[in-house]
Write a structure and sequence with these properties.
With 705 residues, the protein is of the alpha+beta class. Among the domains are: 2-216, YVTN repeat-like/Quinoprotein amine dehydrogenase (Methylamine Dehydrogenase, Chain H, 7 Propeller), CATH 2.130.10.10; 257-332, Beta Barrel (Thrombin, subunit H), CATH 2.40.10; 617-704. It is built from twelve helices and 49 strands. The strands form 13 sheets. A five-stranded antiparallel beta sheet has the order 23-27-28-29-30, with no helix packed on it. Strands 1-2-3-4 form a four-stranded antiparallel beta sheet, with no helix packed on it. It has a four-stranded antiparallel beta sheet with strand order 5-6-7-8, with no helix packed on it. It starts with a strand and ends with a helix. This is IFT80 protein.
Length: 705
């Protein structure tokens, strides 16, 4: 009976069985080598390889693994087969042993119902839990501050901190035999004697049932890349594989069992079927079929922007969809590519060594770094790429997003990361437009959707909320249209920048549709052209089409073809489109178009204000009042003061009843103090009030109004 397996790299796997042998496997060549023959009284139960460090922090101990056995001991064994240390750990069999992600601690669980924490050298630190039933499986949380373990039919999450809240819920109808906690997507996988495996999506309970087996499941293992798992019973074979990746997909199986795996991506008119180490590309438009052959096993692939990027265990292949016969091939430093993200001009590879940005010609552009970088937990929700910008959510402080220039790999702007007030769960950069106007949208742990500019110089940029209860989001690949699943509705923000131009207009620029057909917890896979692809909880894909006219309008406005934009709106006769044109015109300072668009949606007060702006004598005045129109009062005041228009700066504060600031400006510039006092006096008389502000009383004594 094969009792346990463990990954060390993409092309290296160890297994143990009841014949007391430790065997090393190469999944690429299907070769196996016996590493160690254990003593006859040692029956292995669990195996876990020491985690590999990233970059310069690789540790010599990474060449070892822990093996737990039925004699109550765990054994620290080198990859060469030398037993470094054996430790008496439990009364009865040690059923599970797991290193944390930093390799600084080991957790074991035993037949005696105890869960213990050990140092990496095998010294006991603490007994985390003690109960009356055996603990069959144990797993670390992605940030190594909590431990998940089993108790009969229950799953329990216990923090390492004393007196912290313990989570417990019923996971299965039978005894739970195995769990794993994915460090990339925070999903929990469990299986047991009820012949079910289940996915738990924190913090939602109970579990989401994903499948059934014809036999009980004593073991399974999550692959280091992206969430595939395989299970085995009396032998060593592949059961069922599943991936939670949203961008691209992962391929490949383990050992001698990778007969054929089939995947497809119906974007750009192509389907891709992977029979690792081969792939078949089917052009669904003209039925042409191309067979792609690879030297090694396929690990990861992504198809977007007219290019197919395929990562094998040793090399990266870049295919153009115009010519499948001559791929560009370059060697990889590591074979553990866990994420491929594509932009129009380049693509990003994430592996155990770091982040690498390549051009489609295979040239390394940059390799961004930041303190505490952990590539093993990065996924499509926490990394986003555009033509000029790369954004990465920090794991150490989940309120922080690091933003880099794509071409240089250096931090953008003043070098300070973007910091939000609460933890962030998903980020996405828009794909089109000028670098100076690049926007990032993100969802925080309260499921609120925010948008802000990535250009950060000096002062703090305004982070604005544009949605609530948002589960998933995606930017369009061809224009800056944002879509998301918001509570029970599918929502499209046709022009999200409206929130910076005219916040009151934002609801009029939305398209909303009932999302109940997508079932519970759907995820947006892609937003290409006017087609949105959504993956439902059961794994099936749903394709949704939206109106093509907003994208056409974006194209007209980006080329400053305002008359074409007006003709389009008059042809379509849609209030949403007119609202988008109004916001776009104000953002681009085309007041004539803005006046027509606002009139079309019945915003008469704004039409009158725009007319008054057009009549102002100086360019600075017009720009300042346009900033006021957008709600940017401080910027408007700064612009007027810079142009020497002190009285207008004072007047806009008076009009906004910002009395103290108006008086402060008048005193500072020694002009129009009496004007401010006169307006203040008239304001108080209108409301029958008396002056109580000491500052105004002080200046009223020395100035005749």
């Amino acid at each position: 009976l094969v009792s346990c397996v463990g990954w060390t790299a993409a092309d290296e796997l160890f297994s143990c069985s009841d014949d007391q042998q430790v065997v090393k496997w190469n999944p690429v060549s299907s070769e196996s080598t016996r590493v160690l023959q254990l003593p006859g009284d040692v029956y292995p139960l669990d195996l876990h390889c020491f985690p590999r460090g990233t970059g310069a922090k690789r540790q010599s101990q990474a060449e070892s693994f822990v093996l737990t056995s039925s004699d109550g001991k765990f054994h620290l064994i080198s990859k060469l087969g030398r037993v470094e240390k054996s430790v008496e750990a439990h009364c009865g069999a040690v059923l599970a042993g797991r290193w944390n992600y930093e390799g600084t601690a080991l957790v074991t669980a035993g037949e005696d119902g105890q869960v213990k924490i050990w140092s990496k050298s095998g010294m006991l630190r603490s007994t985390l839990a003690q109960q009356g039933t055996p603990v069959y499986s144990v797993s670390w949380a992605p940030d190594s501050d909590k431990v998940l373990y089993t108790s009969g039919q229950q799953l329990i999450i216990k923090p390492l901190q004393p007196n912290a809240k313990v989570l417990q819920w019923k996971g299965h109808e039978g005894l739970i035999l195995k769990t794993d906690w994915n460090s990339v997507n925070d999903l929990i996988l469990s299986a047991g004697e009820d012949c079910r495996y289940k996915i738990s999506i924190l913090p939602h309970f109970p579990n989401y049932k994903f499948g059934a087996f014809q036999h009980r499941v004593p073991k399974f293992l999550l692959r280091p890349f992206k969430g595939f798992f395989f299970h085995f019973h009396a032998g060593f074979g592949i059961g069922k594989s599943w991936s939670s990746s949203r961008a691209g997909f992962g391929v490949g199986a383990v050992g001698g069992c990778c007969e054929s795996q089939e995947y497809f991506l119906p974007e750009f008119g192509f389907q891709l079927f992977c029979f690792s180490p081969c792939a078949q590309v089917h052009n669904v438009i003209n039925d042409a079929v191309d067979l792609l052959e690879f030297r090694d096993r396929v690990i990861k692939a992504s198809l977007n922007y007219g290019y197919l990027v395929v990562s094998t265990s040793l090399q990266c292949y870049v295919f153009s969809t115009r010519n499948w016969n001559t791929p560009l091939i370059f060697d990889l430093k590591e074979g553990t590519v866990s994420l491929i993200l594509q932009a129009e001009r380049h693509f990003l590879l994430v592996d155990g060594g770091g982040l690498y940005l390549y051009s489609y010609e295979g040239r390394l552009i940059s390799s961004p770094k930041y303190p505490g970088l952990r590539t093993d937990i990065l996924n499509a929700l926490t990394v986003s790429l555009s033509n000029d910008t790369l954004a990465v959510k920090d794991k150490a402080d989940e309120r922080v997003i690091y933003i880099f220039e794509a071409l240089s790999g250096k931090p953008l702007g003043d070098g300070k990361p973007l910091t939000h007030k609460t933890e962030i769960v998903e980020i996405a950069l828009d794909q089109k437009g000028l670098t100076s106007e690049r926007k990032i949208a993100f969802i925080d742990k309260n499921r609120d959707l925010f948008i802000t500019s990535v250009k950060r110089f000096g002062k703090e940029q305004k982070i604005v909320k544009i949605g609530t209860m948002v589960q998933s989001l995606a930017w369009n690949d061809g224009c800056n249209i944002l879509c998301g699943i918001q509570d029970s509705r599918f929502t499209v923000w046709y022009y999200p920048n409206t929130v910076y131009v005219d916040k009151d207009l934002l609801p009029k620029t939305l398209y909303q549709k009932d999302a109940s057909e997508f079932s519970k917890s759907p995820q947006i896979v892609s937003f290409v052209g006017n087609q949105v692809t959504i993956r439902r909880a059961d794994g099936s894909l749903v394709h949704l089409h939206i109106s093509p006219y907003p994208a056409i309008l974006h194209g007209h406005v980006s080329s400053s073809r305002w008359q074409d934009g007006l003709r389009l709106c008059r042809f379509v006769k849609d209030q949403t489109l007119w609202a988008c044109l109004a916001a776009m015109a104000v953002a681009n300072k085309d007041m004539s178009t803005a006046e027509i668009a606002y009139a079309a949606i019945g915003e008469i007060d704004k039409v009158q204000y725009i007319n008054s702006i057009k009549e102002l004598p100086s360019k600075e005045s017009r720009l300042a009042h346009l900033l006021l129109f957008s709600g940017s009062c401080q910027e408007a005041e700064a612009l007027l003061l810079q142009a020497g228009l002190v009285y207008q700066a004072i007047q806009i504060n008076i009009n906004l009843y910002n009395w103290e600031r108006a008086l402060e400006l008048a005193v500072k510039h020694r002009t129009h103090v009496d004007t401010v006092l006169a307006y203040r006096q008239k304001f108080l008389e209108d409301f029958g009030k008396k002056e109580t502000n000491q500052r105004f009383l002080q200046y009223a004594e020395g100035v005749s109004v």
